């Protein structure tokens, strides 16, 4: 019996690989994608990047404007993440098995998390764009809704991982709901929650560039403006500032994680 199970387990990876190859080939055939031709265009694409995307003295004169828009993008991402974290904390407490008030609130909280999380931020941008138009409110709300779903799900899991024994001990002493949350749940879950918030700030700064192209705000708007006017030197400078900003924020958040975790 064991030998039969071992032979079956050996065939599973091979069958899975064959299925992946078949799906990949079928997808390439349907979309008329030629992998060889795609590889052949890489040298030409790289030569175009080298020839066009470089920073000049003229493009550096636009740096103050670019930095203003970059700061707008960063602060909008932080504000959207922070507000979403506050709302997600409430939904997380309602949705967690450890701290839920009743099953109705738990189902509602989990539904909100699943609904907003499974729709991409870009899709939210397009949906909200119809109602609010091209402005910073649209970009803020798109990041907020997308972050809300992700953080609510992450907070629910973080709270569920908290020690049940400390919660039961406080309940046994007659502690009320808010006292249990404040003394037993939050202290245990807070480091992990802060880590998720930092992760979403990094993610939202990257997403805000694409959202800005759609909503006409922040660094995405500047990128789109220079790209459409074929000012590739300015596009290179915008791209460079975005990369530097993301790297710096990533280093800062990693440092904070090492302190809190």
Residue windows where pLDDT falls under 50 for at least 5 positions: none
CATH topology of the largest domain: MetI-like fold
Shape estimate = globular
Structural class: mainly alpha
Q: What's the CATH superfamily of the largest domain, by name?
A: MetI-like
Secondary-structure element order, N to C: HHHHHHHHHHHH
CATH C-level category of the largest domain = Mainly Alpha
Description:
The protein contains twelve helices and no strands. The protein has 261 residues and is an all-alpha fold. The chain has two domains: 2-40; 57-260, Orthogonal Bundle (MetI-like fold), CATH 1.10.3720. Helix 5 runs parallel beside helix 12 and helix 10 runs parallel beside helix 11. It is globular.
Write the layout of secondary structure elements.
Blueprint: H1 2-31, H2 35-40, H3 42-52, H4 57-60, H5 63-95, H6 103-117, H7 121-132, H8 136-160, H9 164-172, H10 177-215, H11 218-228, H12 232-260
Helix pairs in contact: 5-6, 5-8, 5-10, 5-11, 5-12, 6-8, 7-8, 7-10, 8-10, 9-10, 10-11, 10-12, 11-12
